[in-house]
Amino acid sequence: MAGQYQDRQDSKIYGSRLIIHRRVDLDNDNFYFRAKVDGHTGYIRRSCQTSDVARAMMVAEEAYEELRVRAKGGFALKTVTVDAFFDGWIETTKHRLTETRYKWKVNVYARYLTGYLGRKSISDLTKKFADGYWHYRLNFWTSDEGQKRIVNNKLRAKAKTFSSHNVAKVPSFATLKSEASLINEILRAAVDEGHLQRSIKISAQDAIAKSERSDGFRDTFTDDEWRILTVNLYNYAHCRGHYAGKRVNAYHQLQRRMLHVFVLLASSTGMRVGELRQLRWNDIESRMMDDGQKRLVVSVRGETSKVRRGRVAVAHSDHIIGVLEAYKEVSNRTDGHDLIFYSERDDEVGEVDLSTAFKTFLKSIDHEGRAEGLRTSSDGKARTLYSLRHFYAIQRLKQSVDIYRLAENMGTGVTQIRNHYGRHVSGDAFIQELTKYRSKSADRKKQTAVTSLVDMLEAGMIDEEAALQAFKNVKG
Question: Please, what's the b/e burial string for 290-307 (b: 16 or more CB within 10 A of its CB; e: otherwise)?
Fold first, then answer.
C-alpha cells in the first residue's frame, strides 16, 4: 500500500499513527485516512470525502478521536451495517438450519427487518432504537414502503419474496414473537462478535397489549367441513363435478393432483409443511403392521426437520397409499431420490410451494355463504397448509390416541401437544387416556403419577413442570 500513499501527510497531533493520502489506484482526487488505534489489530481506513487537504485532515482527526473513544468503550471500530452483518451471520449459521428455516429467516429479514435496521451501524444499536421496530412493523403495510409492495405485487407473476400476496396486513402475536426471536438471535451474535458492548433484547409483548393478542392457534376444520373439503379436493384433482369442463393444461393438472396428495398426506401424518416439501420417494414405504393393516411409513430426515431430529411418522389412514400410487403413475419424477412434490420450470426442478394454491382452492368451495368459502372458519380465522397439522392432532386426540405416540409421530413434545392441541379436547379424553394405565399390577409410582395428572386435569390447573415429570413416570 506504501506506493499508493500519494500526497501523504502525517497528522501534526498524532504523527504517523494518523495519515491522510490520495490513492493512485482510484480515479478521484479525494483524500483517505489511515489510522492506527491502540488495542485494535491492523489499520482503520476510510475516505475523507473531500479533495481539500485542510478539510481532509480535520475530518481524519475528528474521526480518529471518535475511534479512540469507541476503543476505550469496548465498541467495534469498523463500521458494519446490520445488512452486512446479517449477510455474514446467516451464511455462517446456514449449516445448522433446515433449508426451510434458512429461507424463512432470509425472507423475513428482506421483507421487514432490513427496512428498519439494515443501514444502521450494528455497533450503534440501542435498546430504545431496537424497541422502535414494533411501531415500524405494525404500521408497515400502511407506510409508503408497504404500499409500494402492494402495488408491485399486482405486477408479479411468480415469486413471493418481496410481494404482499401471501402475508397478513395485521400481524398476529405469534408472528411478532417469531420476528422478535430472529432479531434477538442477530443481536446476540453481534455481542458474541464484539460489535455490541452489551446485550439487547426485544419482546413482542411490547408490541401488542395482552388484551388484544389472539390465541395464536391455527384454526382447524370441523368434521362436516373436512368431508366437504375432501370431496371437492378429489373433484378438483380429477376435473370432475364442479371443476369439470374447465380447460387445464398438463402442468396445472399435475399441480392439482400434487395438491390432493399433499393435503391428504399432511392430514394423515401430522408432518410439518417444510418436511413434506422436502419428502422424496425413498422416504416412504408401505408396510404391514402388527395388527395386519397396511400403513404408509414415512422416514422424516433430520436435515429436513425443524427440530433437526429424524423420526418415523406413520400415516393414520391406509387410503393415502392408493392415492400416492395413483399420483406416482402421472408424476414425471419417480426415482427414489426425486422430490415427491416439486416445481419444474425451464428444466429446473426444485421444491414447490402449494400454500397459495391451497388457499385459492379453499376459496373456491362455497360453504354457508362465507365470502372466502372454506378459506376462513365460521369465526373468520384463516386456514393455511399448517392447519392440516392442527387438524391431524385434534382428530387423533379425539380418538384417544396415546399422547406420547402422537408427540413422537409429529416430532414435538408432550407439553406442546397439551398446550397447543389439548385445548380443543375435553379433559375427559385426557383422563380416559391416562386412566387406561391403571391396573392392579401397576406400581405405586405410576399410580401416584396418574392420580396427580387426573387431579390437575379435572381441576383445570396444570403445573407444566410437575405434569411433565408425571407423564414420564406414567410412561415409565
Answer: eeeeebbebebbeebbbe
The phi, psi pair for 106, rounded to 5°, reads -65, -45
Q: Would you give the DSSP letter of residue 185?
A: H
User: What is d(CA 285, CA 298) in angstroms, rounded to the nearest whole number?
Assistant: 7
Question: pLDDT (tens digit, 0 to 9) for every residue of the chain, 476 residues total?
Answer: 444 688 999 999 999 999 999 987 767 788 989 999 988 777 888 888 899 999 999 999 998 998 888 788 776 666 789 999 999 899 988 888 888 889 999 999 999 999 999 999 888 889 999 999 999 999 998 888 777 776 655 544 444 444 444 556 778 888 899 999 999 999 998 887 767 767 899 999 998 887 776 655 567 899 999 999 999 999 999 999 888 866 788 889 999 999 999 999 999 999 999 999 999 999 999 998 787 888 999 999 988 888 788 899 999 888 999 999 999 999 999 999 999 999 988 778 899 999 999 999 999 999 888 999 999 988 888 899 999 999 999 888 888 787 788 888 998 887 777 777 665 555 555 555 555 544 444 566 666 766 666 666 555 555 556 666 666 666 55
> Rounded CA gap, 455 and 72, in Å?
60
Burial 384-398 (b: 16+ CB within 10 A, else e): bbebbbbbbbbbbbe
- Round to whole Å and give the CA distance between 388 and 221: 8
Which cell is 13 given?
Answer: 497531533
Nearest residue to 191 (alpha-carbon basis) of 21, 76, 358: 76
Cell of 420: 397447543
The answer to whether the Cα torsion of 343, 347, 348, 350 is positive or negative is positive
Please answer whether residues 36 and 17 qualify as being in contact, where contact means their C-beta atoms are separated by less than 8 angstroms: yes
CATH superfamily of 223-391: Intergrase catalytic core (1.10.443.10)
| Intervals of CATH 1.10.443.10 along the chain | 223-391
Distance CA 420, CA 416 (A): 6
